[in-house]
Amino acid sequence: MQIVTFNIRCDYGQDGENNFNNRKDLIEKKIKEEQPDIICFQEVLPHVAQWLKATLADYYVLGCGRDRDLLNEQTCIAYRKEMFHLVKMEVFWLSDTPDIPGSRYTNQSECPRNCTVVYLYEIKKARIIRVYNTHLDHIGSEARSQGLSLILEKISHSDYMGRIPFILTGDFNALPDSEELAVLKNYEGLYDCTENLPGTFHDYGREKSEEKIDYIIADKAFKCKGSVRWTDHVNGVYLSDHYPVCAVLE
Prior knowledge:
Elements: E1 2-7, H1 20-34, E2 38-42, H2 46-55, E3 59-62, E4 77-80, E5 84-93, E6 114-122, E7 127-135, H3 141-157, E8 166-171, E9 191-192, E10 214-218, E11 224-229, E12 233-234, E13 237-238, E14 245-249
């Protein structure tokens, strides 16, 4: 199974030659070439979500905006129609009141943050997996730690259909050795499928020291057979300001 985490970059027309309209064809081409089974997107504005749904005909795309009115950026998840049935989907907010849309921690940026969850039934194997996709705060270190702790707590205490294997993906806005990611060590059996990869944030090739802030975390039910960055670019136009990361899980 191929799973991808892909910060697609919020499209406010701010990126010159790398504006979303100039990246669309490259994104579509790459996804159709690779045909990953699951794609976890971050920074998906409503018009980009509509484009994904119209363009990725072989996928269902699920998610909602992070604001109180469910607009603005999504952490949406796309999955192949022919491979999975949807069993359950939910969205919760990284806050002390996770069931309230638009809620956030007091020590984070003004941007609400959420997590999209899907339970997928793999048709050929007749089994269920869970996928959690998030985008942690870009300013508050403590808020990142709180948000990640909340996600892991929900993963650990979920009793829906018993113990279901899970994958956690996203832009964590934190380096591998950061304090906020240390919370991962408190949960037995988790590992980083992207551990051996170099940086993922490159700012359209301008970042001299690329930062690794995008992750695919799996539990011990999965074996990672390899992971790669999608580094495609044509004439200075990239897939995004982050390299999407693809892992092959068994």
